[in-house]
Design brief:
With 143 residues, the chain is mainly beta. Helix content is 3%, strand content 46%. It is elongated and about 70 Å long. 9% of the residues are buried.
């Protein structure tokens, strides 16, 4: 999986838009792209350490639906998927904004015991992952 050239234009002047934190553009280069992973370096400490509800928005689309993205604060990188088909030699523009929308994530219960990880939601099991060896009970042949 190769990441192609990303041009990042960081606006240090926050007065342009009260909510817009950074703007950047993704250039596709010589090749057509389809659902391509993107990594963007973010060097502004205030964004990485700030207490923001961040949303990634693409400019030039009809709706301002936030895109799925992940911010790695330690590495200083923003990861997302450049969705859909993007022809070669084109540029797509994005903004990372501070959103006033509060996110309420459902609470998932987690239990770790005896080499097992169990996830449940509203007392309904979701996942049971056995990460350690489980030996048969005494008196049962292990072969």
């Amino acid at each position: 999986m190769k990441f192609f050239h990303v041009t990042l234009l960081i606006l240090s002047n926050f007065f342009l838009s009260a909510q817009e934190l950074i703007k950047f553009q993704v250039e596709t280069g010589k090749y057509d792209r389809m659902d391509c992973p993107i990594a963007v370096c973010i060097s502004q400490e205030s964004i990485l350490k700030g207490n923001y509800n961040l949303q990634l928005i693409e400019h030039g689309t009809d709706d301002n639906t936030p895109l799925a993205a992940q911010l790695d604060e330690k590495a200083g990188k923003l990861y997302f998927i450049l969705k859909g088909f993007t022809p070669k030699n084109t540029t797509r523009k994005f903004s990372l904004i501070h959103s006033k929308i509060e996110f309420n994530f459902p609470e998932v219960d987690m239990l770790c015991s005896e080499g097992s990880l169990q996830l449940s939601y509203k007392n309904h099991p979701i996942l049971n992952y056995q990460y350690d060896l489980v030996y048969p009970p005494k008196g049962i042949d292990s072969i």
